[in-house]
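Now for a specimen:

…
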Amino acid sequence: MRIKPWVNQLSVYEPGRPIEEVAREFGIERPEEIVKLASNENALGPSPRAVRAMREAAGRMHLYPDGGSYHLRRALARRLDVSPDQIAPGHGSNEILALLGHVFLHAGTNIVMADRAFAVYRLVAALYEADVVAVPMRDFTHDLDAMAAAIGPATRLVFVGNPNNPTGTMVDGPAIDRFMARVPDDVAVVFDEAYVELLPPERQPDTLRYVREGRSVFVLRTFSKTYGLAGLRVGYAVARADAIAALNRVRQPFNVNAMAQAAALAALEDEAHVERTRRMVARGLRQLERAFDGMGLERVPSVANFILVKTGSGRVVFEALQRRGVIVRPMDAYGLPDHVRVSVGTARENRRFIEALRAVRAEAGAA
């Protein structure tokens, strides 16, 4: 087969390991007792309204979905104060990232990103043979001044994960304003806001105003995190109408399945679930922070539903925790081999992780 020569050189994204896979590998007889804190999922589960909507929709799964996500786009437009033609739903926001590469990138172009931002940005660039300009972070946070300075004639996309995965840090509105004042009009800025709804509204930077002003901006959001619909894969982009039209030209038909559309539409109205999620995350962060401080472990202050902690030999700790039925995420792929990233779980799940980490450190002779 005449596979393109560069395809075999592409890196493969390492996702959080599924519970069933870990149970098989380590001979854990009761998979339901495994605690997964690896993929920044919502430990409360899906929005209850979304669950009801999925049950109601199940009997219609023999029909193709609405290819234009008509009702979902209109509900989002009302919520975000934009036009429906400024919204493009996708098979998770990851599909939108790939579509952006399809529209903007080719050999000889580049993207600008922080060096410890979401790994998929690099993968998308590689997929379209574009170069990556990786700008070092400052205190585990996007250095927007340095990123603006790194933009050159070949730059097509600038990615700003906010809050950022895997560091959990965020840049605020004034910093974004200063940054946007320096970005050329022909360069598109992608604000990846997968975790932004976990913040109270008053703390969420208003990046959507750049869309309303007609700037070259894409705001990406997802129903995977705050709304607990990661298994359905539904996200969306907000941008100028002409930019959304370009995404629609390269996307596959029926890219958002019917059950995902029904669940997302219902979840969008479930403010009670969003508030419960925010409270759980705030309590969980405090619980984990106290434990790390008690163990003398360095951590990065987080505003998201995960926390980056320096354990030493992160891959070793990751493997040892799995043997105890706890799944976290090693960070060597991000140039942080001494760190792991831990998602916030329920209070019980967090306790299981803390106890397992203490046991692993005791086995290794740590203080």
Observations:
- Residues 252 and 325 are 39 Å apart (CA to CA).
- The chain is about 40% helix and 15% strand.
